[in-house]
Predict the structure.
Amino acid sequence: MKLLKKTGSSMAVLVMLSVIVLSACAEKETPKEEVSSDATPKDAISAGEKLVNIMNYELSTKVLTLDEVEWIDESDTDRIKELGLDVEKDLPTGFAIYNETIEEVSIKLSDDAELFLVNQENPLEPRAVDEKEFITYLLGVKGPYNVTVKDDEVVRVEEKYMP
């Protein structure tokens, strides 16, 4: 009988250990926080106008993936000096689009966003386009674009004219 008790208690301990091990193995890893494709990281892009390259546009969620860039022209002497640029070599056309690092941000395009492309007939007057034409154009031209952000959405996109 004593043998049965030991075996019984050993079995109970073995069963409990098996349950603990199996339940630990069955636990799922806590998923890393992911930003859903339609979410807007609040700290990533502030309200106002930004100069960006549009890296991607997700049609189903209307989410733009943006990378902020900087427009530098010959008159920005302090910034040119700070970056160690050579005007003749780095700004041969009188300007440069500077992007030290790619830092992509996803943000929703407003349902009633205004979309403009450079008007080839009169570059100083941008041409309003619909979403379909804009998306088609994005396949070939990633930027730069001036985007206006308001209430965590892009409300205006205008292709930047480059002389």
The first helix runs from residue 2 to 26. Strands lie at 48-58, 63-68, 70-73, 95-98, 104-117, 127-128, 145-150, 153-159. The CA atoms of residues 57 and 64 lie 5 Å apart.
